[in-house]
Amino acid sequence: xxxxxxxxxxxxxxxxxxxxxxxxxxxxxxxxxxxxxxxxxxxxxxxxxxxxxxxxxxxxxxxxxxxxx
Length: 69
Known about the structure:
Elements: H1 11-23, H2 28-35, H3 39-52, H4 61-65
């Protein structure tokens, strides 16, 4: 059996896959097949996104996003 080289995915890709998993329109296995990523990796990205999502709404928004208001 040949071993696949280690791949790296950018943050945008991870977020897109995790959001798709959160929507639950497709199963994790279907998403994994579509994006050629292992299902356990998708579950990890999904869990990380859900755990860190509260930080979006905390703190000083002007410092985080440079909002014009």
